[in-house]
Amino acid sequence: MPKVQPPELKKFMDKKISVSLNANRHVTGVMRGFDQFMNIVLDNAIDERMKS
Hints:
Blueprint: E1 16-21, E2 25-34, E3 40-49
Antiparallel strand pairs: 1-2, 2-3
């Protein structure tokens, strides 16, 4: 069975990213860090609720 590779999040460090979450939420900010569980740290984040 092939080993599953974690996503390459290093290339997004110090770049502006946009993340879609559940409950129609959308967060945009500069990625400052992450861990092995894919928790991310965003700086200057803006949290928006999308209209459904």
